[in-house]
Amino acid sequence: MARAGIGRFLLVDSDTVAESNLNRQLFALHSTLGLKKTEVAAARIQDINPEAKVESFPVFYPADALPDFPVNLGECSFAADCIDSVPSKISLIVNAKAAGVPLISCMGTGNKINPLLFRFADIYETSVCPLAKIIRHELRKRNIESQKVLFSVEKPVSLDAENTAGEAREKFIGSVPFVPSVAGLMLAGEIIRELLQSESAGSGCK
Fold first, then answer.
1. Do the strands 79-81 and 103-106 form a parallel or antiparallel pair, or are they unpaired?
2. Tell me: the pLDDT tens digits for 30-58?
3. Which residues, in sequence order, are CB contacts of 37 under 8 Å at separation 6+?
4. Which element (helix H / strand E) includes 23?
5. Cβ–Cβ under 8 Å, residues 188 and 150
6. How many CB atoms lie within 10 A of CB 1?
7. Distance CA 25, CA 83 (A)
8. Which of 34, 72, 87, 185 sits CB 3.0–4.6 Å from 63 for a disulfide?
9. pTM of whole model > 0.85?
10. Nearest 5°: phi and psi at 85?
């Protein structure tokens, strides 16, 4: 998005770069381990475009985000939801609707191996994705009638792991390098296209 000319970013993430991120996240390098993700992302954006304005908020977006939350959604032309927590995803979607800010919500990318199966759709037109099913249910309870999402029609690969004794098996969510990254590029591209359409329609988005 920075390379495409987006000039202002509000980055929200409470995490620090961990070894478990090395397999799939652009900012995850041995040189950035332990650093705040928002700071690493901000530095990269400004290295691409020194004139870009970047505000970093190393905080978790809570399920009960209130008006005193440090990020003012009303200042945004667009929001990208890439949160893992269901309650926080719902909170962001609800608050973006209330603020009149367009948002695209990314569904699950874990346990997927085919990036060609991602699709954009309204949440109520999704299928297969377990996370989308939960989000549909929660948004319906809140009388939210539509929400654009990015989801995959690929059935998640079943992954499990043995404990040290080799007995009980526990299911877990894993990622391959080329699936979350493709989802991110698709999300960025769709946001840029929608901003361009809004500008052409005279909405004044910047």
1. parallel
2. 999 999 999 999 999 999 999 999 999 99
3. 13, 15, 16, 17, 27, 58
4. none
5. no
6. 20
7. 14
8. 87
9. yes
10. -75, 125
